[in-house]
Predict the structure of Polyribonucleotide nucleotidyltransferase.
Amino acid sequence: MYKTYSMELAGRTLSIDIGRVAGQANGAALMHYGDTVVLSTTTSSEKPREGIDFFPLSVEYEEKMYSVGKVPGGFNKREGKASTNAVLTSRVIDRPMRPLFPDDYRNDVTISNLVMSVDQDCSPELTAMLGSAISTAISDIPFDGPIAATQVGMVDGVFVFNPTAEQKAASDMELTVASTKDKVIMIEASANEVPEDKMIEAIYAADGLNRQIIAFFEKIVAECGKEKHEYSRHLIPEGMMDAIKELVPSQEMEEAVFTDVKQIRDDNIRSIKTRIKEAFAESHEDWLGAVDEAIYKYQKKTVRKMILKDQKRPDGRAVDEIRHLAAEVDFLPRVHGSAMFTRGQTQIMTATTLGPLSAAQRIDGLDESETSKRYMHHYNFPSYSVGETKPSRGPGRREIGHGALAENALIPVLPSEADFPYAIRTVSETFESNGSTSQASVCASSMSLMAAGVPIKAPVAGISAGLVTGDTDDDYLVLTDIQGLEDFFGDMDFKVAGTDTGITAIQMDIKIHGLTRPIIEEAIHRTKEARTYILHEVMNPVIAQPRPEVGKYAPKIVQIQIDPSKIGEVVGQRGKVINAIIEKTGVKIDINDEGAVSVCGVEKEGMDEAINIIQTIVKEFKAGDILEGTVVSIKEFGAFIEFAPGKEGMVHISKISKDRVEKVEDVLSVGDKVKVVCLGKDKMGRMSFSIKDVE
């Protein structure tokens, strides 16, 4: 016997079936939002995983193509690896869930979301977030939930909750906010330069709706929730921390971590670990396996005390001070555009590549409104950037997430397809990493796009704010431009990108049970100050606006407009005409359904020739127009002249010469180039030409 619970959510019905399916999972909820159906399950291993010092949580979001009535593309006809959207959705579910599990929980936990039916007006991603929260909350797995999530759009300045597909298309904001019953715990946003105060207003409008959802969830947990199971606590052996502090006094630990050079700090900590392990090998051999975690906790406590109590940062900066910044463009000589941005020991180089619109990425996903991507941003994080060694296995979830964040930050400032008919790819290579490489890639990409001649509306910069909290909500310190150590031992990584006008992207990661409004407001306004400094003092002196035209190594694209009814004539049967133009001129040609023709090439002569051919094909010739063509066939009554690929007209034998012509072959041969004047159309609807009347 299962139970169904329902509530009205943003004008649609959210209903949840508990106990209907997946009975062997620790927790399961069959979610219905409109006609969107998602099965959310949460499971845990019986025993902790041995030999690890982290919580092994895995979040999955599985897109099934049958949910939108599609057969998967490709040869296999089966869903393959997770799409980019699935990876990003898994990450956005993970971020608010992870902090609410016990710090020392080491059992494997998998949260799985199976998308089985999609109503385009009811987001499956949001439904999965809600399903993950309730399936975990009713399970017997220790979890300090539930949480809730709301999506916010803004149409004509008015907030829209959980927007429909039509509202999303018109929205200036895509904001997702997750909350506990007390605080905001996750923010993800992309926006069209939305002012900071408007963004804060939207965040707390979503938080208000989240609290209504949580009240609904708490009723379900009260009636269906299982008792939380006991688990093996993962604790440092009693007396071990005291022994470590005798060997390494707090003053020595402070000196070890108090440096702005990551390699020196790593060497200091490595030396301390070696000394402790040597001491314990003689006195407490059973403690050796816990040394790494104990030193981690000792470092963490030391760094947090230095920052919060002493207001001293490990590299000596003030709390609102940015590390040393540097920027340059044209780092690579032959690419279409390139730039490098350095912030302390974080260094990113971005290369921009321009191509015809046919190079846009095709998308085979659940969102029927998005079938291709004209702008692609890819982010790479090699092991050498942090002084480590490991083989490259392609981009992981982190790389995909960071690339998407920078992509969202830059999309709002890109020119329209009509104004700039190119496909655009930016690739950010991480040369060195010590905190917030994703926001450095935003800065480098903005400059790289301008160097490539992409007419972006405004430069974009990004920065990250951190946080260290004490025992009360009022005891905290917000840090501008956190480095790796402050991110590692701190409570927050609040990334904000934008222009002078407003915010274009936000991503907030935290390790605590939510943030108060004063913290969020301070972080957003602090990042605004830092962004403004970076834009005006570092980026603009290097390149303040896009170059007037694309570089000499970039393809040139000219766009012309034709009557959409003439597209078939330009393309020809099975592409015969357009392929002939491409072969003859060496260009690439794209045509959209509205009749916009983009001609892409390197040589101006070939582009001009292709444009001339296309314009000739679609032109409605009238009597008196003069044009050139080639004799393609000869008949007794005249010759056929091809004046463009697939376009022919006839010259009657009487119109070939002012002198009498007995046989066409006496005057013309196949392949001859001739100039003709148009006489209009004959009785058969064919173009009729004259050679003898050309003046």
